[in-house]
Amino acid sequence: MTAAPTLAPTxxxxxxxxxxxxxxxxxxxxxxxWNYETLNGTGVGFAMEPALxxxxxxxxxPAYRSALARQSRYFNxxxxxxxIAVGALTRAELDGVDPVRIERFRTALAGxxxxxxxxxxxxxxxxxxxxxAMGVYGAGGSALAVVxxxxxxxxxxxFTLRAWGLRTGxxxxxxxASALGNPVLRHGPQYIGCAAAFMAGIALPLALQRVAGPGxxxxxxxxxxxxxxxxxxxxxxxRAEGWRIALGVLAIFVLYSVLT
Length: 260
Fold this sequence. Notes:
Blueprint: H1 17-26, H2 41-52, H3 62-71, H4 82-94, H5 99-138, H6 143-172, H7 183-212, H8 219-236, H9 242-259
């Protein structure tokens, strides 16, 4: 008896670079159609649409219409990590995965992407970038330098995160869940939080010194404001979000820099 021949696996269809770039740039408009019925769902379908044109029958075929309708339904995740879902769901649609399985996967993916993104971006990266910009102010930087530092640093992070998410989703498809174990996603909030605490120890004294000026005429006001801030934080407790506090303090320093 002879052994049955082994069939080679079908190669996965590789999207052209122009299509992947179109999907990436559409991710920046993900929340442009946000609504209470589908949340980010319409934006997910919009980002996937250039790739769905490669389904059998093209834009006039039933596969394209049903996939676009399916992917434009309710979906809620952090906008910066939604690229993981966009890439993974696109790969599943192009590989002809059963729609029922795609729908189950889509539902299961939303929660982790939301919680991981909130901890990594809103609670860690955003306060860190704000404190770096505050340090620039304390070192004597102008209002333009402070705002420019924040925008460049913050956007460099989330541009990279979007690109990584889309590339990872397209390459792994339904196996993308393992990507959520990436060290950056798992331990990033902890390390960035430590870096933010270190930056706070440098930036806050420098910024307060610049606000007080050489005459120290504002020292009493600064101490009073700090005491009020402590009381507010103690009262708000878990309702006080780090990124809101950091942005508020940064805005005060920038405003003071502009006015003086």
